[in-house]
Fold each of these.
Amino acid sequence: MRVHRPTLKHLLPLLAAVTLAVTLLAAPPAAAAADKCGGTLAFGEVAVCSALTTEPDVFTVTTTRANDKLFVMTSGGTGSPVGFTLVDRQGTVLCYLHTRECQLAKAGTYTIRAALQYGESGNYSISVESMRTPSACTTLPGTFFSFASTGVTGTLPTGSAGTCFRFHQPVGSVLQLWAPASGSVQGTILDGQFQPVCMVRYAQVCKLATPGPYSLSLYDYYGAASPYTLRMARISNAAGCAPLQLAAFGDPAGQAGTGNLPAGDGVSCHRLRMPSAGTVGIRIFNSQSLFWQLYDDAGNLVCDSSALRPACGLPAAGDYTVVTTNRDWNPVSYRIAAPALFRNAGCAAGTGLSWAQDALVVHQTSAVQTNCQPFHGNAGDRVVLYSASINYNYVSSWLVDSSGQALCTSYSPEDGCVLPATGTYRVLSFLAYWDSSSTDEAYKLQVRRLSQPAGCPVVRPGAYNADPAGALGPVRCRILNIATPGTYVARAYRADNTLLYGSVYDSTGHRVCDDSAYCQIPAAGRYTMVLDGRVPGSVIDNDVAYVTTVLPIEPSGCPVVADDGAAFRAEFTAPGQYLCRQLPGAAGSRVVELQPTDATGSANPSAYVVDATGAYICDGGWQLRQSSCQLNGTAPFYAILTENAGNAPGAFTTAFRRVDGPPSCAELPRGGSGATVTADADHFAFCFTVPAGQHASRETFTWQRTAGAGAAALSVFDAGGLRYCGPTPAYEERTVTCSLPDGPVTVILETGAVAGTYGITHRDGTTP
């Protein structure tokens, strides 16, 4: 027995109601039948059956056109699942109607069977529409395709197979589509041969590449009752767009446009007229996710916001359309400007390419401002551009020719840009971020010539143990006048010995070496060292003073120091100074650096070891101080000493000791009172030998300051110079246990460079 549900009878006409657009009325589909479980099914009708039993329901549907396609919407209810099949007069199954479409070859009457897949009862709805002869279809007028149109608004009834729209547009037209709803409402535009052209579901562009007239069946994927707004605007020969003027450089003021976009794929447009071919900028500012595309009047995409620079080269005079899209969840209000990059209007006064001039300070007073700084260049000049904000921000800057065409846009391993011809060029720039409360923000620019540079102080190689060759002074470049090819130390230091990194270029502006300790100079000549040469986002202005150290990698003029731990005093007299000392040890020997435990700041320089060719052997942070340094390479060997960053030049005391080979230190007696040492400013490193038979595999050492001031640290080495213990932290008194190898060991106690007396003992560490 079929059970009738009165509530459905009253609700279905309401669900089928369609909201009418303000400017265009969409014809509603046929009203749904109340509890219809078989019989003739008209196009557009929604049949709802509340109680399907084990006996299938049978519907008939008739198409009067050959090659028709049926759009079908079926849904099961709360009972057992229902399957739908469409068969011809011979009973041949043509379609399983769980799919959206069913293609029919011939006109005629077809049968639809609704049957339970299992179970004893179920409920369902079914609706069918014709592609060729729909139950109703709304024709969209030409005004519908204006960007100013609000579109067609309606509601798809529950279970509807779709609502039909027809329209005419010239073949080749390009349309901007909107998402018809936030949910699952969608459809497909069909051409005059009923072939698919574009899907309508998201905000996207559609080109009508084949002739019309065109049709669209809009439906909800799940058959739900869904409100929708259908909007399609023509980008080719666009209408309804706000005009956008070509703007001058600087604050565009009234030449800027505005726009408001709703949340989630909101779309708007601006119409731009070009008097001739040329390059324009597209400057849009907002704090949300806003994208833009620029089209010519035929609807061809010219450029978009994914480009590296916000500029478009427009190939001819005529009208162009800028389409803006909001991908954010929030509404967006924005400003837009189109500066004419092919004109000079609004450019600042010309600037030169000398490194000696101060950096340009550029002001920005508008969120959509683009600034222009002209300069003269010659064909073949290699020009480099630096930009940096004064307050936290990011500066976008690039070089253009007189037509506004960007230069050097492809990747190059070299720095800078080679100018193709002699003439006037320009730097275009703007700040990327803009706060709503901002009124005037500033940033700095430097445009400089790398090839045959002008304005750089000249520096010749200096000497070890002397002041740096380049005196303290400003300008971010130095000319290195090199008479002999080879490897050089070429570095820049502030007055507090902070290292400033630089790159070195030859006279043509090609990079010779990067920011590194050594630079290989291939031939005699003039080279240019530029601070942060490879960092376009860094402006180093004339308020930064530094010294320039230029030294051949091979040390010379280095006094010989003992390797028996005897202290020597030295003093740095200028920042960036390199002191050197010759170590007497033979190749293969091992040495360590010894320092007072209270040495800090300027009294605690860094050291490293090189051989006679300048080849790097050991660092000071680990090998000289934490393990030991084996002198490998070509003798003689040299210790190079430099002040650490942040320390002003000052005096220091240090020592070097050979720790391999036969013991050369006094024996440290085992047990008893051990040994006593007295430290002062010139005696802070004390060496002892423990013979092979006088220590265990684990030996305990104890030291204690008995008079004076200071603290001591302990290190133990085997006969080969390998460190087995320490260096320990410095303590006034301490007991440590070390695992030791067979054979004699060397014990070194380092103290502070102050008057103090220490006692040191050792005993078997394997026995408690």
Amino acid sequence: MILSCKNICKAFVTNTVLDNISFWLEKGDKAAIVGINGAGKSTLFKIITNELEADSGQVIINSMTKLGYLSQNSSLSSEKTIYDEMLLTCKDIIDMENTLRDLEIKMSQLSHDSEAMDSLMKSYSNLQHTFEINNGYSYKSNIKGVLKGLGFCEEDFSANISTLSGGQKTRVALAKILLEKPDILLLDEPTNHLDIKACEWLEGFLCNYQGTVIIISHDRYFLDKIVNKVIEIENTHSQIYNGNYSFYIKHKSINEDIQTKHYIEQQKEIRRQQEVIRELRSHGRDKLIKRAQSREKQLQKINMIDKPSYVNDSMHLKLSPRTISGNDVLTATDISKSFDNKHLFSNLVFQIKRGEKVALIGDNGTGKTTLFRIISHQLKQDTGDISLGAKVQIGYYDQEHATLNQNNTLIEEISDAYPNMTSGHIRNTLAAFLFTGEDVFKRISSLSGGEKGRLILAKLMLSNANFLLLDEPTNHLDIISKEILESAINNYTGTVLFISHDRYFINKIATRVLELTPDKINNFLGNYNYVTEKKQEEEKQRLLELENSINSKNNNKQIDTNINSSTKKDWLKSKDQQANKRKLDNQIKKIESEIHELEKIINSIDDQLCLEEVYTNAEKATKLLEEKTNHNTQLESLYEKWEELLVE
């Protein structure tokens, strides 16, 4: 065990944020802390790192354990260049390297003193061994690899950190923490300023990281790829799930169903007992009254199950534009754009049809937002033509929230925009975007960035617009808000073009993906997983064509043979890896199926134990409890096998 949190409690004034939070992690665990905004996730991080003191409870970490913490708004304050700042993480290695150079100079100056030479040689050999096992010869390439992985190019390395944007400074802070290789990495929203390519690089880095990683993130795809444990904080309490994010979602739903069932059954039993008590008392006889009193005492001893209070995040509203557009919504032909000799894109040709939900992806700096501004006529393209179809009206979401009146309440904001809407219709719409009860009377100035984003999206979907342009709509949204947005867009009958780095969101929404590159747009007829599969197929085809090309060459046979052997080996290795992955996936699915069946049996036993004829019969109850214990042992064994396969 490398970290243990025992009964952590924290309150701010009268607001309890964390109550008896307990979990433990082993070395190498990759854990996610999940929960709605305000659940206390970042507070827990600050308690673990001693930035905050818990009101009660313990955080147990070995004194020799090194922590690395990236807070949500981490940014370095430094006058150094990016590269020089990274060199600070390698101070011990650089000191060893300088000492080795000094020893080399001293040895070169000794010519006759063999005893002194032997002593220097011995020191040099020992230090060189230490230097090698600490990867001393690769520290520069490690720095470059991490910086490039997080989206910096070599020209950026010499940039002064003080001149960088907030997002760039956060990426520098992340790079520095990764290079320091702490025993426990605590990362609060590490993907906030990363494009898809950088997210994929970070996923690979963290999956192979030897230390323990704890992540707070709203990037569900990212969590799915990395974590083997999910710690959920809900209503101040914690619940542990031994699996990735999808496993957590599946089993949380099962747990909620079980808890709801147990609550309903218990309430039925309580009502039945209360009815019996009333009946006994109604007769007025002492003997029956005593029996009623006895039942009342038994009823008071029942361990009451709390009423489930799950957020209703389903979308019950069918959102349709007031005006239906023509079938051809947008046609773009030969679009290009440059700024001050900086080329963004050219030769862009694409179409969008009515009802499509299209994702626009691409590396940072490729011009996605610029293309949105061209489509919405906020900016003029250098060449080409943008043609909107019949009755197409654009609604634009740009994260700036400039269209909101900060002095309005939510209900006033909708009413001002749509004065003919009834109060009931407004409330139903706001409820669909998770604004319920007294929330509708909040001032907009008091809302969080995510709440303002949801309000703007609600207004957009009620507007005359039938073609929505959404620029990073999931930024600053917690997971529940993202699910609300997904439901809203999936229920929207108009057309949507959206920019997003959220691959889970793209998978849920996109019917098609456009990938923006400097000289064209690549069209993929599916979601993000489909894009990944197609690119893997293209890479496999490229290797195959390269192999065929190499085999057809006759000149320089020795070189051809070496290249061919290497390429073929890589290709065969790729085939083997894919076969192994399929085999592993099948094993995982089989174990998940066994887990599901075993949990159904355990749930059935739980249901039986709630029956009066069972819990009043000691022999039956004991037998069922023994069965449950055996099944739980089997279940734990299956979970262990499942975790082992996930790590492979």
Amino acid sequence: MSFSSPKVSRASNRPPVLTNPVRYPESASAPARSKRAWFLLLLTLFVPGAAQIVAGNKRFGRLALRCTFTVWALVIAAVALALVHRETLLNLFTNPLSSLAIIVVLLALALGWAIVFLNTLKIIRPSMLAPGMRALVSGALVVLMVLTSGSLAYGAFLINSGRNAITSIFQSGPDMVPVDGRYNFLVMGGDAGADRTGRRPDSIIVVSIDAKTGQAATMSIPRNLQNAQFSPDSPLWGVYPEGYNCGDDCIINFLYTDVTNNHAGLYPNAPDPGAAAMMDAAGGTLGLQIQGYVLVDMAGFSTLIDALGGVKVNVGGWVPISGDDVNGTGDHLPPTGWIAPGVQTLNGYHALWYARSRQWVPEYNRSQRQQCIQAAMLAQMDPATVLTKFNGIAAAGAKVIESDIPAGQLGSFVSLALKSKEHSLARLTIGPPDFDQDFPTYPDFDVIHERVKTLLNPPAPSEKPKTEEAPAAPAVPADPAAPAPEPAPVPVPVPTSAAPEAPAARPDVSAEYLQQLAINNDEAALFTLLANNGSCSPG
């Protein structure tokens, strides 16, 4: 029995014909090799892993492509989520746990993309390129690696900066729920200076935001408001059932220190008993339930403004940068500078003085300027500004802001803040120009509650204000010879919350002239010339 060996085709013993210049560049011309190099770089840039499929290790390419398609799917899902339910997407980036996962994924993608680029360089074989093209291709690869992997790593860095700021500023806890369809937050600004005992908030503003539309309103409470009220369910009701009325020292901004030093036990679960007491006082005074607070250390406020790149406002009138109070009596030395009228971008130092200065003007001018600074900052918080200055803003915020707002709900509030930019900001001041100057000393809280309700629930534009109808006069037979009566004048309704027009800034007034008045101690002239420095608007 014989066995015949299988026939082996001669063709199977021949070496492969290397006619594919993409996978086998040895047989290609120099221009073809250059085109191949750029083609592989572009594939790695737009479809990481594709270069390996067509010219390198296909197994490695398939793994890279799976990662690429997964990332594409996640990006498409994120875009769809941003369109359908933006709050959920923002919560993913602001929640401490999910943001940490995003940071890890971004760093892994940055490293993986860099590895793919280096593998592509190996496939390109720079030694087979002309010397000039070799340097050009290598340089382009480095640039593309910086733009891709570098951008992903920088994104992870920014998210980590925000994550650190969020964990430093905000608290962990259950989500807040809106009350009557609104979120109400107390925003305080103050500091414990060397000349003060404890922290006293000089700026007290309640921000109320519609939970659906984002329509926002601010209610400014002057620091010298007396007899601040508390609701029966407040821990302070038993101490001050008639309100904070223990004498002339019991103005509302003293309450923070009073509770911190004397009644902290009434708020055993509050991280800041003084802030919790101020929430109760502001809520009882305005007839609202305050759900959270934000406390800004005004001593570091300038750092936050500088991180934002300054704040642009239309300064209404001259504002003094007060000199030192050397005797502690409120009699300051002449100003060290002046903030001039007109549209300008204030740096941190000048923005802080603009918000705090109250020399030669009523307390309420300062309240108006503080509201103006807040509105200007809100207007400037566009995505481009926040993204380009995010690290500085986050670092500054962690140093100067504290809050009891839940960190897990921050994304929802960021979404509301974005919605609020689409509406005008409604304002109310518990003092001039909305009430007379003595009102904070003798407040009528029923009137305040009604004004707050009107502010937060304005009549629809189509509704006409109801007017009392005069009783009909008895019918009198018409006398043909009598002249026709003149029509009665139609009353023009004037909104009670409208601020009176401030006197226009005199063009002949200069910083030098005002400084000389201050040196001469001519307070009467200064009160007249600075009366309009509360009128301002975002620039």
Amino acid sequence: MKNTDISITPALPEAGDSSTIVINMRNRNGRLVPAMDSPPASDVAAEYTHTDGSRSVFTINDREVVVSRGGSDTLLGTLPADFRCAAVTARSILFMTDAGPWHVDYNEAADSFTALGTKPEFPPVVIEAADAGEYHVIAPACRLDRPVERWPGTLSATDSRRITFALYSAYNRAAVKASSAGCFTAPVLVWYRITDASGNTLHRSSPVMLAPAEEYRPPRAVIKLSSGDGGYTHVLAGQVSVRAFSIAMRIAAVPDSSWARKAAAVEVYVSPALAVVDAGADASFDFGDADGSYGTVTATLPLKHTPALATLPVIDRLETACRCIARISDPFTGGVPVMPEAARRLAFMNYDTGAGLASVMRKDPGMYPPLKGAVEAPHSFAARTALVTGDMLVWADITPVRALPQSPLVRAVKSIPAMAWTSVTRVTLRHDDGTEEIVSSIHSGSGNAPLRLSPLTAYPHPAAIRMELGVSYADGTHRHIDIPLSPSPCRRMACHLSDNCAHMDLEPCEEPLAPLSAGHPPRLAGTVLAASPSSPVDIDSTAEITCGRITAVTPAAKSSSAWDFARRHLYVFSVNGIYALSVNASRTLSSAHIIDRRGVGDARKVAVTPDGVYASALDDTLLRITASKTAALMSRCRARHLVYRPGLQELWCLMPDGRWLVLDSDRCVRYHDGSRTVSYATTFALPGQRPRSVGAVTWRVRADDCRLRAAVESDNGSRRPALINALNAAGAVHAPLRARIVTRPVRSVTLRLSGSADESMQLEEIILTLLSWTGH
């Protein structure tokens, strides 16, 4: 018989095939060629693609953020805490740290990036009641239906109703006069928010209560009864007076920050009146002095809603109960507050605060989502993984970042104008597990040292149980107040309202209050937040997916099945398993179900590709997820980092030994070690049931410049190949490399080609020549 030639076409092995190993070579048109690609950069934090196609690459070195573009590096700033993840939107990049998001804005006109920093910081915007004097209306005289014969006496039911209605009508007319002048006659809640040019909320204040006097009392009027036949028979015409106030606004300090320059408007919101006179109930009458001709009676009009009863329901309905009465554009332009004297008193905008309180209180606001309230402005949050996909930005593994207590200037109703001061405010929060957390803030000023506070104290979290305020004055004295806080009915926030809505005085004390921070918010490692990329920290919905730690969130792979029909899905990777999360058009996270119980421990072990999402599981299995199914591609993969390279259509997996395992679009595998070497090794089982002898090996390889070693090894099942023969080649190779050998009978051979070569190299074919006889 003639000798037998067997042609072996060098090819990349399929995933899971350990008989062939290829390093730094790629399949091109059926031939193996050198692949000298640079390994993916592992230190890139974010990439921003410009309209001209160029890219800005952000890297972080010891918390310093550097942006590189076109060979130029620019230092943007220093992160306040350890970096966790980044989210890139059309006009901004958010670097999420343990202290919250660190914002970088992109200015397209200037083609530049500006670092804004972490949570927005603005100077205190003080909203206060400015006394507007009294408004007077004359209540008409009338004759009593039944004379008051003795003093003090009583009024008949008819007279009581008639006088009450007359006084109520006069009071109502006076209140309308004040309202038409842009003034208020009863307590109201006022709060503000600061927005950017797109209307996104940068800061939201806690509400303050404004009232026409230091202690609000129901409306009163003094009337006189004149005597006649049989007693006091007439009610004289009298004046009904109503004390009014307008809303004034001032900024307590000159701002100088990037956030202040970003602020486009301050919007001021006011609630309906918190004390409404009840026209359907009679006034109470207190008979005073009488001199024989005249008798004095004090009439107190009844209230339908007292401020104390109305405040808490309104706090739980701030968005629906309050209306915007003023919008001040560019409030911090040039670093100087735009608050001329003529604009300090805000226009009332024809808002009748006396109407609609009853309907507001009847509406059930539902229980306020506690997580949403804990992470929305003025609070913030830290996240350990993020995803921007379409019109959705998803954050996961959340830790709330508490809002610092506001400056006491916001609530001060009495102060020392020319006194410098420093304050410390501490808020204590008690969590469901009994642990406590303390948040402190320090403020100071060169004037308007606070002495007395408005009656309402609020902190935007229902777990707050206490607020302490200490103020130290330039004259060496100290004052202090300790205020208990209780959650509002719907747990929107924690608050305290003093008796009769009276102002609260700071009491003298011996020692200043020390700033203290203790405890920390609970980490919500299995929670996901959804927002719009245009408002990246304005949360639309929340969902708790798992009790374990979430490590990554990706878009779901496309599928033609009904699983994807008319719905959007995400994959959520956690240490407890892989979940499919459904999302509706309003970015509401609707439902989640587990699709694989193998956990993934690191976001770097997940990569999104056109044909599926790949992940290296905790059991070292390389998974591919499509639709709602997972498939295991390789066991014992142990990849530390997965990167998809779209230009090459390859998945690169960083292995523990520093090499990269490369998976192409056909799920064929090779290795890349970062050097300019090439290596090919394959074990080939000889055909037939008996061992065969190899007479020659021909390597069809060509290269313009190379240093190669071709080797043949035998293996009869020991898995320890023994070298049969090897040959070396250097320089230009344009003819096949042929090694003539005669081996004893073997069942398989291992063929190796290794060395270095330029890009012209091509490994086309390996020919084994088997002898026609077998040895004995």
